[in-house]
Amino acid sequence: MLFPDVHSAASLTVSPDRVQHFTSDSVSLTCEGNFTEWRVRKFSEDGRLYSDCGRMTGSTCNINTSESDTGVYWCESGSGEFSSAVNITVQNDGNGPILVSPVHPVTEGASVSLSCSLKTQKILSNVFFYHNDKLIQNDPRGELNISAVSKSDEGFYKCQYSGRESAQSWMSVKVTGRSSSPVWLMVGLVCGVSLIIILLLLLYRCRQSKCKSLFFSCCIRELFTTYTLIIHTYTCILIS
């Protein structure tokens, strides 16, 4: 099953450590854990499941990014261990900004900085930041600093610079000091399976649609968004 295992012995690191990237960026996805065989799997924005990276060097998948590399990635060991899933978004507007935000969940109480960047200019000023489509800060320094992250800070973030907006990225907050009881783990498993079944039914409906143009394209994009939310919802259930 395609679930992020927050207690897994496998992990995935992304370098540079951010969700959004420009086209032609060099991005490395490295699988870590006490295993000898690895593969990086991807669920793409167009609804396809890729069983391996195709550009693996040892435990590292090296990508020279293009728009088609947008997707949800995770590591799988030869013995079947899964890492948590991460989102990678590739900016297809060469003149537009990207939001620089962490790939993995931020621990409650920790500090985090979000920034806005152009391909030709890394440090920007007079940037607007949005949380769940609500303007939260116009910072002349070009950074959004949260000194002590709380669960209320979780959500979708994006930035705007000179009238151009970045894509939005989800920032998860990991709550500490709670242990997952067997009951909640079972609830999480049932919810996760149910959501995956719904996703597959929606995918089947898209594939069976007689309209092959606009409806199909929008449907696949909605599926990708739904899958992303499934990943985050399931992770939150396991952590709670």
From TrEMBL:
Transcription in keyword set: no
Xref: PROSITE patterns: IG_LIKE (PS50835)
A GO term from the CC aspect: external side of plasma membrane
Keyword Chloroplast in record: no
GO biological process, one term: immune response
One MF annotation (Gene Ontology) recorded for this entry: transmembrane signaling receptor activity
Keyword terms of this UniProt record: Disulfide bond, Membrane, Signal, Transmembrane, Transmembrane helix
InterPro entries found in the cross-reference section: Ig-like_dom, Ig-like_dom_sf, Ig-like_fold, Ig_Fc_receptor, Ig_sub, Ig_sub2
Listed transmembrane segments: 183-204
Record-annotated Ig-like domain positions: 97-176
Pfam families in alphabetical order: Ig_2
Name the UniProt record assigns to this protein: Ig-like domain-containing protein
Organism encoding this protein: Oreochromis niloticus (Nile tilapia)
Lineage of source species: Eukaryota, Metazoa, Chordata, Craniata, Vertebrata
